[in-house]
Structure of Gamma-glutamyl phosphate reductase:
Amino acid sequence: MQDSIEQYMQTVGQQARQASSILAAASTIVKNNALSAIYTALKNSEPKILAANQIDMTQGRDHNLDSALLDRLELTPTRFKDMLHGLKDVMNLLDPIGEITDLAYRPSGIQIGKMRVPLGVVGMIYESRPNVTLEAASLALKSGNAIILRGGSEALHSNQAIAEAIQHGLKTVGLPETCVQVINTTDRAAVGQLITMPEYVDVIVPRGGKGLIERITREATIPVIKHLDGNCHVFVEAHADLHKALPIALNAKTHRYGVCNAMETLLVDEKVAEEFLPRIAELYAEKQVELRGCLATQRILGATIKPASEEDWYEEYLGPILAVKVVSGMEEAIQHINKYGSHHTDAIITENFSLARQFLARVDSSSVMVNASTRFADGFEYGLGAEIGISTDKIHARGPVGLEGLTSQKWIVLGDGQIRQ
Amino acid sequence: MQDSIEQYMQTVGQQARQASSILAAASTIVKNNALSAIYTALKNSEPKILAANQIDMTQGRDHNLDSALLDRLELTPTRFKDMLHGLKDVMNLLDPIGEITDLAYRPSGIQIGKMRVPLGVVGMIYESRPNVTLEAASLALKSGNAIILRGGSEALHSNQAIAEAIQHGLKTVGLPETCVQVINTTDRAAVGQLITMPEYVDVIVPRGGKGLIERITREATIPVIKHLDGNCHVFVEAHADLHKALPIALNAKTHRYGVCNAMETLLVDEKVAEEFLPRIAELYAEKQVELRGCLATQRILGATIKPASEEDWYEEYLGPILAVKVVSGMEEAIQHINKYGSHHTDAIITENFSLARQFLARVDSSSVMVNASTRFADGFEYGLGAEIGISTDKIHARGPVGLEGLTSQKWIVLGDGQIRQ
């Protein structure tokens, strides 16, 4: 079995590599026509896809999947419509491929610049939500990449039905069906293969729980665009305008709980703690947010506040819990964030120009903010049009990753006969 | 022993990580003062460094190192001067850190942009030439990164003497000496450790033979900026101006043989082969370049031309040998380059606008050229100021890599109280 999976994955890889060279040369109009044909094919296959999804749902219930998972798995007519709407959005994005920048003359007389090109083949590993199949495929196609999709076993029928429609659309416009391939086995060995074929796959994009992503990162021999923790901070500095600090601290924690850009630790300068903490605590109490505070926080808010342990500073609660620490000033705040944080998104609230400038320079996170809610760290809010994911890496892509994350740049040199002296 | 090496490398890694956070916040003037102090320290240590180098040279001769290696190992007073000159050049480069680009307003009212930041800690693995120690250290410092250097065992004394002077310079301006560390053991296990400490090292830059680089890439769990083969092509298209094609084909092959951007295969359109091949063959004959041709080439140039085997098309000769193939046109040329080439640097010689445009778009190489010699693929010729290396990867850095290759970008968000709706 192991052998035949290896062979199967090798074939999938080879086919993707071949398809990628055709896609890389495809014009914007061909790629958009493909997306449009996929739109039509999906629309025509709606009953078939929803029926396939019902098989997954029935099997999921038989296997006692938990209700949150079943909810993410389900494709309703409304969700199907949203999925098609997302495809239209991708169609309307600018084609990033072929863009030439920084073209300039050198003393030798050559002109040198950079041209944006596809990465080649993307490997996507994800769980439950079948709409990711279409989202990932359409973003890959728009950026001229072939893609190999490995969804969760619980969504196999849904994903294959969606893939079938996608491949039908590709065929209609004369592109190879192998531009988008869905792994047809639920054997875990297939993932092991996918992430160790650098000859066929250029980048891996995992979406799922932290355990999955850590395992993939550890075992992959291919670059991974990965997203781990979001342990975000808001630091209310001594010069903060509390009319800004209060709504931001409330929004960053309570706008949505289960998201990576929600605040998990609130830092407050001791010079404003006596004034600020009771007021924000009242707002949190209305939302039933549990506070876990340092000694100074407990002293100010009263002993009913639970104490924060060392582990709390590291925690990504993803729920209505917040760690609160009173700090002696800027220096302690930055040290705390760089030590305990996950380098995701951190904000300072201050009216002091020099401190804002310092915070921006010294906090080592993928998004650093002044006087804004951490909840803004998002591809759509940043104007990227679409979001492949949020990267917690520094190499290649950092923070919210748009279509550009699936591209690279090559150098182009234009001359009229120059030789090297 | 294995245990103590692991412990030693952990300490080196921790120290580098700590130093990197101080360096990341260092202003341009502090970094330039450090480079200036290092300049003075090296000048004062010249006799000591040259003496250390003589120990390495004596040991090298005792160990029967080959003469090419000994030549690369030797530090003469002239080479020492050149090394210091290179340091001055790095001092004069613009500081890339802190540069903010693309700052623009979003509909929500936040301003969003990107700020250039150091990667953190660079691990450099290299062979023989001790001047790389200073070059790598100065580029890392200029870009705000700490660096761990692992030179060849044959250069240990030279590298340590240079590192001592560098650390003296760092101390003078109050920066931690651990900004630049040289591994003091020649045990190979140290390399194994260095490339598997993602918690302390952000990127690995290897310089050396292909075997070394392949091994590092295979075993590393950290991104590697790597350079493998340079199998470069020049394609003389049917519309080529032979007054440009002849000097370029000559220059690309014979300007220097042992370099990665030298041409290794010449492709000639059958429509100009009869005219072009005899003329270029005469020029190559003067330089005693051995030609290995396809059947058509042999037919045109005579049976004295050796036949090219399938392997020849893959070969990076790094010497006065050239494979020559007559092709039916653009399509065959592009297929050949993308199949047999190493995606390094490839050029077309043509006066046809549309074919030039097509070649630029479809050749999947880190540098694609029109009417210029492949020898231009070089950080200095491209105006990068300094060259970390030439990357054959697509992720993070591609082609000649300058100071930017040791940096990343983070998002910055500026607001005046915005919250997410």
In short: The domain at 232-376 of chain B is CATH 3.40.309.10 (Aldehyde Dehydrogenase; Chain A, domain 2). Chain B has two domains: 2-225+400-413, 232-376. The longest helix of chain B spans residues 2-24.
